[in-house]
Specification:
The chain is α/β, with parallel strands linked by helices and about 575 residues long. About 35% of the residues lie in helices and about 15% in strands. The chain has 3 domains: about 5-170, Thiamin diphosphate (ThDP)-binding fold, Pyr/PP domains (Rossmann fold, 3-Layer(aba) Sandwich), CATH 3.40.50; about 190-360, 3-Layer(aba) Sandwich (Rossmann fold); about 375-545, Thiamin diphosphate (ThDP)-binding fold, Pyr/PP domains (Rossmann fold), CATH 3.40.50. The termini are far apart.
Length: about 575
């Protein structure tokens, strides 16, 4: 096709050719030329109420669908409002492309109205970014941007487009073949390393398959499960890997780390071999690195060579795509077993079973007491079913959701793992629901998180996106309050919200949503069922929850994973020995 068009028309046409079906954004002066051809495009534009909301919507869309999400903003404050979602996607390896407007090229550097050095500001928060100064470059730049976002280690890409470039005339041409000499992500693992890995696995008595979110990004859940079964390996998941293997699978130990289950965390500590599959040894998993899995040899598989040896030096490093490397490991293991079975490791599995029996995840819901968030989460899970997509904010409710939701499929758990972005849940759930309109999407949010981005429910209502939001109202910034209670002698500073302001039911109704409140345990299930019966509107369900509840198990930040705290009284006095202790 050879056709004269504006840079803005070329941008929208290039996005269409990438298969973009929906974008999330907020218009403004510098990006305005790009909004005119949207009217003639098949791409759906969802108007967010804040650029940060648009960014998290694109993230939620990418999480749920596995496709590249697209966010759009204008120059200056529009672009800077995308930095939080870009960094969030960068930390969690989520493929998104940000399209930002910029002041005209002749005005760049002159402190023009709504000018920001977007290219520089966004550099550490993106995998790569572009400042386009010639409209003729748009086809190649968009093609490269989507390629970079989705390949290798996925991540965010930003394309900054000056207003005069969008308005300029160009002749459309097919993008040239992508040539990025410095970008050649490894896909297949080195055969010698794959063979060495299988040798170590066969020799090990106490192995653990330590699984990260990269398995989900690589769409490798089926291969992971087959490998665990064939090699007879217990599986631990990180927060970002929930759903990579079904929680109901007998080899699943659950989530490890600061608020992981005792068995998963202790299994890693006592292991003699860690097979780290697309996991980055995050500090919330390792605790004190020097004390982390002290007896374990390490096999580390990651598509990003920068992760290999960053935290823990591996005995067998394998750089490659998790799905492809798992296929290689399966092939090599089949040869090694030659029709036989993997080692039984009966003593190891007996020990794991004892830990699971003695230290289960549990909660107590007093039928006459305050509502426990764990109970709400369990009931939503039971009533809505295993195909439900659950999106969490950040804090206590996030940890309880990760603990007590039974994940059976990948891409059904969406949260802000690495950056820990409060306010993530509502817009991310809107994006997930927009991308997966046939699925049920529940957001599990805290009252603190909800108040940060609740305006995006207006977007959901206006756009006809029937997402469901559970607001866990405990009247406080729960996780901060927990830390102040445990480590600051109950000196509660700037954590108290109120349990009555705002009125969440009236607020929901004012934004065009259905509002429901549950104040007693017996009201929880009926409230959820009423929400599930509402198909054509967003729903906000406020659950008035126990303000004193705390998340356990817990490993103190920077502490050893050998010290898993199961209850508050197990914590050491943060002040150290006191004079009265010696009396």
């Amino acid at each position: 096709m050879s056709q004269t068009m504006t840079g803005a028309q070329a941008l929208i046409y290039a996005l269409e050719r990438q298969g973009v079906d929906i974008m999330f954004g907020v218009p403004g002066g510098a990006i305005l030329p790009a909004y005119d051809p949207i009217l003639d495009s098949k791409i759906r534009h969802v108007l967010a109420r804040h650029e940060q909301g648009a960014g998290h919507m694109a993230s939620g869309y990418a999480h749920a669908t596995g496709r590249v999400g697209v966010m759009v903003a204008t120059s200056g404050p529009g672009a800077t409002n995308l930095i939080t979602p870009l960094q969030d996607c960068y930390m969690d390896s989520i493929p998104v492309v940000a399209i930002t407007g910029q002041v005209a090229t002749h005005a760049i550097g002159n402190d023009a109205f709504q000018e920001a050095h977007t290219w520089g500001i966004s550099m550490p928060a993106t995998k790569h970014n572009y400042l386009v100064t010639d409209a003729n470059d748009i086809p190649e730049v968009i093609n490269e941007a989507f390629h970079l976002a989705a390949t290798g280690r996925p991540g965010p890409i930003l394309v900054d487009l000056p207003k005069d470039v969008l308005a300029a005339t160009m002749t459309w041409h097919e993008p040239e073949e992508i040539k990025l000499p410095g970008y050649k992500p490894s896909v297949r693992g080195h055969p010698k390393q794959v063979k060495a890995a299988i040798e170590l696995i066969q020799e090990s008595a106490r192995p653990v398959l330590y699984t990260g979110g990269g398995v989900i990004r690589a769409e490798a859940s089926a291969e992971l499960t087959r490998f665990a079964e064939m090699a007879n390996l217990p599986v631990v998941t990180t927060l970002m890997a929930r759903g990579a293997i079904a929680d109901s699978h007998p080899l699943t130990l659950g989530m490890s780390g600061m608020h992981g289950c005792y068995t998963a965390t202790t299994a890693i500590q006592q292991s003699d071999l860690l097979i780290a599959m697309a996991a980055r040894f995050d500090d919330r998993v390792t605790g004190d690195v020097a004390a982390f899995a002290p007896h374990a040899r390490v096999i580390h598989v990651d598509v990003d060579p920068a992760e290999i040896g960053k935290v823990r030096n591996p005995d067998v490093p394998i750089v490659g795509d998790a799905k492809v490397v798992l296929e290689q490991l399966l092939e090599e293991l089949e040869k090694k077993l030659a029709g036989g079975a993997a080692p039984e490791r009966a003593e190891w599995f007996d020990q794991l079973a004892r830990w699971q029996r003695d230290y289960p995840l549990a909660f107590d819901q007093d039928p006459h007491g305050p509502i426990q968030q764990q109970y709400v989460i369990s009931e939503i899970n039971r009533i809505s079913g295993k195909d439900t997509i659950v999106v969490a904010g950040v804090g206590q409710h996030q940890m309880w959701a990760a603990q007590f939701w039974g994940f059976e499929k990948p891409n059904t758990w969406i949260n802000s793992g690495g950056l820990g972005t409060m306010g993530y849940a509502v817009p991310a759930a809107v994006g997930a629901q927009a991308g997966m309109p046939e699925e049920t999407v529940w957001a599990i949010d805290g009252d603190g998180c909800f108040q940060m981005t609740m305006q995006e429910l207006i977007t959901a209502s206006v756009e006809g996106i029937p997402v469901k939001i559970a607001v866990m109202n405990n009247g406080a910034l729960g996780m901060v309050k927990q830390w102040q209670k445990l480590f600051y002698h109950e000196r509660f500073s700037a954590v108290d919200l109120t349990d009555h302001t705002p009125n969440y039911v009236k607020l929901a109704e004012a934004m065009g949503c259905v509002g429901i409140r549950a104040e007693k345990p017996e009201e929880v299930a009926p409230a959820i069922e009423k929400a599930m019966a509402t198909k054509d509107q967003p729903v906000v369900v406020e659950f008035v929850c126990d303000p004193e509840a705390m998340v356990f198990p817990m490993v103190v930040a920077g502490g050893s994973n050998d010290n898993v705290i199961m209850r508050p009284e197990d914590l050491p006095d943060p002040r150290g020995p006191q004079p009265e202790d010696e009396i």
